[in-house]
Amino acid sequence: MVILRPMKFLKVLANALVSGLFFSTLLVLLFADLNINLKTSPRFLVQLTLHLAVIYGLLIACVCLIFFFIVQFFSGRAVRIPFVSPSFLSLSFSLLVLVFLVLFRANTSYFDSFFDLRMRTCLRTQLMILAGLAVLGPAVAYGYRRYKRKVVFFWVYFLLFALGLGFVFFQRSRYAVDQPSLKRLPLLGKKVEKKITLIGLEGLSFDLLIPLISEGKLPNFSWLMDNGSSGRLINFSPTEPVTLNPSLDSGKFPAKHHRLSLSRYRIGKMKETLEIVPRFLLFNQLERVGFLKITPFRPASSVTDIWQVFEANQISAVKKDWPYSFEVPSQPSSRAEKLLSNILDSSVPLSDEYFGLARNALFRDCAYEEAGAEEKNARQPQVYYLLLSGLNTVQAYFYKFHFPEQFGHIDQEHLERYGPVIDRYYDFYDQIVGKFLTGLKEDELLVVFSPHGIEPLPIWKRAIESLLGNPMVSAHHEFAPAGVVFFYGKGVLRGNNFDGMRIVDIAPTLLYYLGLPVARDMDGIVKTSIFAKEFIAENPVIYISSYEEFRIIPPQ
């Protein structure tokens, strides 16, 4: 029978606390790696380690403590342990490194767009060193027992472990830092006559478009497919507007445009703030206990985007690409009221939560589109960009009523009431596309796109939303389902279906269409496969090294 003694408990606790502090140190590495804009210092790393140890260190210590006594119980004999046990620490360190590697790999894969080639090399080096350290612990423990308990094994182990961990943190200091060009060379601008209309409809997906078109619905989307070029639009994670929109504007991934988050995270009393927090740690929940403060933040652009290029070339533009903060009007237009009656059945009570969600999404879309149309008519720009987000919101909440077979039992009354909402919202967007097709000029290119699609929440995610989030949500775009893109206009191939276009390809393709130089430092490429051979022959691609190196002189 195993008897628990107070002194032994304290000894195990001491070793468990060391293990918890070690795991907190590993978490600091992950925080530092993900926050690519953060300038790290030893003081910051130590402070962050101590703050994380208060939550995650103590949690890991409890797990190690419980695990030790479970092992002792099933072994049937008392296990002697000193206040600092090399065997305990080497094995616990190895197990914790393995747990961390799973967490590390999941996060660096999800935030892969944040890392350039140099950063990825550093991450691979970190991964290999940590994997080696994980294997080293059991090997040392075996050697210690095999060769008459020679302590030299542990001295060598902890020395190698300290060196390896130090080298892992050194890799973070090797992150490349963009250096702005001190002197920009003059580049003569070009007078442009062509026009572009860019319409973003967030959440649009071929998974829903194709079935509706095959049923004879959505005539304008059908027209675009038959008379233009279309295909899936490949994006990246995280699929948030703060990362996707600048990538569309600049043709560069977040690793280059450095706009990562709309929030700043302050842990405890720390002065420094973080832009990104790792996934799978339930970190945001710490705000509930006052340990974390989250504040909104709108990062500024750090690279030259196509809108700056347009302005420098005296190309007039109207850009309406941020509907998220646009207030829902208290007095919607009569058009919006009529559309609402078409989308939602009149029997739905006004107090219904789903009614409120759909109403707000529709009224915001209508008001934003109407405001954009008013500005477009007043200014008559050469380039017009409108982004609407209502469909994405509607699909997030109404997806389960559209695809009930994926969600188990759903009340029949709810299916009849909410089932058609997504289809009707697609019809609303089809009407918007029809208006732009009707007003299209001969020398104008129409681009309709969605930065991402939509997919149902996995079961584990539904459980988390039910417990800690919003149980009404049934779909998301977290894992970057492909969006859609349509091109229509003079010089565009008809009935052409293409694959492999990425969101970062849109900017260089638009520059090419207007006859402007394409920068080689863009991650995107010109998608010439959407254009006719005659257009390509008459309009060769013009390249420059980078817009960061040139100062555009307005055309005469």
Portion in beta strands: 5-15%
The number of helical elements comes to 18
Taking the sheet with the most strands, its summary is: 7 strands, mixed
- In round numbers, the mean pLDDT is 90
Strand order of the largest sheet: 6-7-2-8-11-3-12
Number of domains: 2
Low-confidence stretches: none
The span between the termini is 94 Å
CATH H-level superfamily title of the largest domain: Alkaline Phosphatase, subunit A
* CATH fold-level label of the largest domain: Alkaline Phosphatase, subunit A
What is the number of E strands?
15
**What structural category characterises the helix and strand content?**
alpha/beta
Overview of the structural elements:
The protein is an alpha/beta fold and 556 residues long. The protein is 50% helix and 12% strand. The chain has a seven-stranded mixed sheet, with helices on both faces. A two-stranded parallel ribbon has the order 1-15. Helix 18 links the parallel strand 13 and strand 14. Helix 1 packs parallel to helix 3, helix 3 packs antiparallel against helix 4 and helix 11 crosses helix 12.
Structure characteristics:
556 residues; alpha/beta; Alkaline Phosphatase, subunit A; seven-stranded mixed sheet; two-stranded parallel ribbon; globular
Summarize the structure.
This protein has 556 residues and is an alpha/beta fold. The chain is 50% helix and 12% strand.
Helix and strand arrangement:
Elements: H1 6-34, H2 42-75, H3 86-110, H4 117-146, H5 152-172, E1 185-188, E2 195-201, H6 206-214, H7 219-227, E3 229-234, H8 241-250, H9 254-257, E4 263-267, E5 292-296, H10 306-312, E6 317-320, H11 334-343, H12 353-379, E7 383-388, H13 390-402, H14 412-418, H15 421-438, E8 444-450, E9 455-456, H16 459-468, E10 475-476, E11 483-488, E12 496-502, H17 506-514, E13 518-519, H18 533-538, E14 543-544, E15 550-553
Parallel strand pairs: 1-15, 2-7, 2-8, 3-12, 6-7, 13-14
Antiparallel strand pairs: 3-11, 4-5, 8-11, 9-10
